[in-house]
Amino acid sequence: MGREEKEQGKGRKERKMKREEKRQREGRKVGRGVKGQKTGKKMRREGTLAIRKSKKRKLKRRVEKERRTQVGEEGEEREEREESGFGRGRKE
Fold this sequence. Notes:
It contains four helices and no strands. With 92 residues, it is mostly helical. The protein has a domain at 39-70. Residues 1-92 are annotated as: Disordered.
C-alpha cells in the first residue's frame, strides 16, 4: 500500500527525506504528518509506557502508605490487602 520497502543501511531520516522529495515533485505539501497520538510501538521504543507504569506504581504505594497511617492499624490493613489479591504481580 503506502508503505515503502526498507532499504538496507538507510535510516529513518533518509527515508523521510526521500518521501518528502517525492511528494514535492508531485506538487503536494511536505512535512504535514497526521496529528494525534503516537502509536504504541513508538511509545514503547521511547520507553514512555514504562515510565508511566512506574509513576503509577509509585503513586499507588504513596496512597497506600497515607491510608495506613490514617487508619493506624498497619497489621490489619496488610492482612486485608493480601486476601484481596492486591499486587499479585510483584513481590514486596
